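Morning run. Coffee first, then this:
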Amino acid sequence: MTTLHSPNSLPGLAPDLLAAIGAWDQAAWNLAALALVAAGDGPPEITAAAQQLLGACGITAAPGQPVPGGDAMTTRHIASQAAAPLQQAVALASGRVINWGAQSDEALLAQGQASAYGARAFAELLLPTMGDLAGRVAAPGARMLDVGTGVAAMAVAFAQVFPQLQVVGIDVLDRALDLARRNIAASDVASRVTVRKQDVSGFSDDAGFDLAYLPAPFVSGPALHAGLHRVAAALRPGGWLFVVHGKFGGTPAEDALTRLKTLVYGGTPLDDAAACDLLRSAGLTSVRTAPTPSAAPAITIGQKPA
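And here it is:
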């Protein structure tokens, strides 16, 4: 078996390229080991070897058990968070036309589960800064729109975090919606989460929403610009929209990777200023990009005037 861990393994290639391949190879295997150990359902001997690798990197976690500082749900999200980029990178490396419709069910599910932790993060980090929204989403009849719901993992998570909240998810991928309906049916909030096939650029709803979510990395430019105005119009007075987008302004490599990922996902690259301008153009106020942890995407929020 040919290896890529020394300059002698591929004569003629520059040593710096070989060193980069070696480092990236190790990073990919470390990520896969984390996904395997966190999931807790791999072959025992391989899982033990993966756990040994993580231990050598300073990470200790028993297979399928909460990682340090987390609970069982956090551990499941970590498994998905680690698996999702590997699944997506495989699709990119294959040379296939890259879009969400071309991803495997496993990739769709991994991405969805990775995003589900966002509900708790939203409740802890953003909600306290958003006026009376906490009271609104805790009241009977509260409604949320989840654009690009995918497999509905985040829609289900929001319904679980907010017991009064009715969540409507829309997406354009039939296969994702089939998976979403299975996830909803298997959840404890099936009566409060619904999904339907709908392009956000043609969205309308007369009942109104207290909260709406729009993920720019997964929505094309034309659909995002047309859809955001329609989503803003569907908010109830005083309701909030939060747009998730890539973080820019880091190192050149970080910004280039963010742009590549966004384009691979079929989405729209937005920096903080562009996201704020987009929300203001839809008539929203109190627009700002909220601080988020370094590993999390950027989030820009805006409120519909009361």
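The domain at 116-303 is CATH 3.40.50.150 (Rossmann fold). Good start to the day.
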